[in-house]
Design a protein that fits this description.
Blueprint (H helix, E strand, L loop, with lengths): L2 E6 L5 E2 L3 E6 L5 H10 L4 E2 L10 H16 L3 E8 L7 H9 L5 E5 H4 L2 H20 L3 E5 L4 E6 L10 H14 L3 E4 L9 H7 L3 H20 L10 H5 L5 H8 L8 E5 L9 E5 L5 H10 L4 E6 L12 E5 L2 H6 L6 E2 L1 H4 L5 H16 L5 H4 L18
Parallel strand pairs: 3-4, 3-5, 5-6, 8-9, 8-12, 9-11, 10-11, 12-13, 13-14
Antiparallel strand pairs: 1-2, 1-7
Helix pairs in contact: 1-5, 2-3, 2-11, 6-14, 7-8
Length: 388
Amino acid sequence: MRKFKGYLREDGSVGIRNHILVLPLVICANSVVEAIGREYPEVITIPHVYGCTFDPVSNEEITDAFIGLGKNPNVASVLLVSLGCETVNLNEVYEGIKSSGKPVEAITIQEVGGTVKAIEKGKEIIKGFKELAEKTPRVEAPISDLIVGTECGSSDSYSGLSANPVVGYVCDKFVELGATAILTEVTEFVGAEDILAEQCVNEEVAKELLDMVKETEGNLARVGHSDIVDISPGNIAGGLTTIEEKSLGCIKKGGNAPIQEVLKHGERPTKKGLVVMDAPGHDIESMTAMAAGGAHLIYFTTGRGTPAGFPIVPVIKVSSNTETFMNMKDNIDINTGEVIEGKKSISEVGEELFDYTLKVIDGEETKSEKLDCREFAIRRRGVDVCIL
């Protein structure tokens, strides 16, 4: 049985990173979180614009995302910073993360006496968290414990021929080892959903997948896309012409294994193997959903190049062509352009990507980690949508 060495959590999961997370529950708490981050730059802070909405659907999804991020195996401990009057409920998030058994503390700015006192209290808590993190045991765990996510962004006409199939090859390899791979970006299933339905393990899962795509198409129609779904100007400049063309390339990231289940946004997989998650085509929002669902790392394929990373999850950037790789070597980890050039096969480059992944799992930093790329966004369900 192939194994890796990671950080053991109280709930039995094993992380490949040992991050301390400082998470504001609302935009109004960002200044406190950012000040704590300046004092302790090694901790992960996630300033954002969310946390106060009277839309109950969005509020529930934001709450669930916060809980999922806190429970991610790569997180050792969590400090929640609340203003005190946001619509996201502090106690619900606190208890949700605490159920994993990991250390979690909370500060409410209105209760402790304002910004300065909240910062000082936060610094004291982080000091204790650092001592705990240093004592976290590293243990051997089977590869089957891992969850890998897949993402594509700033795609081009080569993405579906090189980068995405190479990632699909690696996902198949992880699935063969008993691990879990997440395929998402439902807006980029449009036009290829029948192919994915045939890949489902049974008719029930296929129906759930097709219903999810149908709902997504309905949301798109509500905002003026009844006949066509737009692809981004960058995709068009990269040689793509229709959403169907992009979707046929997008779905290759998941590989060829049977799809075992369809997950809600940010939901933790309950089955091993290839799974599909409800998340949008927006790159950062999609990565947030997978991280909330427990992904240990994310593959991010790109044709035109992107620097984006994610706060708590290593993002492995994979270019579809050599020109982009050479142009953005500071950002991209693996080049699959040699597949296009006929120099190497998909399986040969796939083995290179798998070997590199094992190094990342063992602690080697990806390019986005080295550059502190920590982009973060949460979808607004039914509203977000349309430029892929």
